[in-house]
Amino acid sequence: IVTVNCARLLKADHHATNGVVHVIDKVITTTTNSIQQIIETEESLETLWAAVAASDLNSLLESEGQYTLLAPTNEAFEKIPRETLNRILGDPEALRDLLNHHILKSAMCAEAIIAGLTMETLEGTTLDVGCSGEELTLNGKPIIANKDVLATNGVVHFVNELLIPDSAKTLFELAQESEVSKSMDFFRQAGLSSHLT
């Protein structure tokens, strides 16, 4: 699937006497803002803007290149327990891993995404980016709230859930989500859960 500034190419290679015509399904508008500038000007991304500033990722999101930012909205950050969020925001390494987990290594418009596509993030992990009917999905869940916000250095999709990679979780948080959650109850009862957090 070929796109031009996120407009889908419908018919290609109509040859004319003085050139060639490709038919697309949208009017292409001028794009002037970088991904960083979009984050700075969008009210629903205020928390993300603060997190990017704290992790020194500004220069990357202003740089030339082609990225896809899965931008967590303020609502996405509010869904996370305050204690967990404060811990991540206070840990530069975990914060950078968290943000890099939301950045794909290439620009990916919604029209070019097909079911079952696996994309690598800047963090080195992978995300399953796909579609279910008209909805875009991440790891099988339809959490993309707004798609195809074009930037000079890529594209932004707003997501309404935070994607926390394992590297940004404590041992306790990892264990609670796995097959050893029962063991965690024993650690808690024994007063040892602090060692895992």
TrEMBL record:
Residues 1-28, 32-163 form the FAS1 domain. One of its GO terms (molecular function) is cell adhesion molecule binding. InterPro entries: Adhesion/Biosynth-related (IPR050904), FAS1_dom_sf (IPR036378), FAS1_domain (IPR000782). GO terms for cellular component: extracellular matrix; extracellular space. It comes from the Eukaryota. This is BGH3 protein. SMART domains: FAS1. It comes from Herpetotheres cachinnans. The gene is Tgfbi. It holds the Pfam family Fasciclin. GO terms for biological process: cell adhesion; extracellular matrix organization.
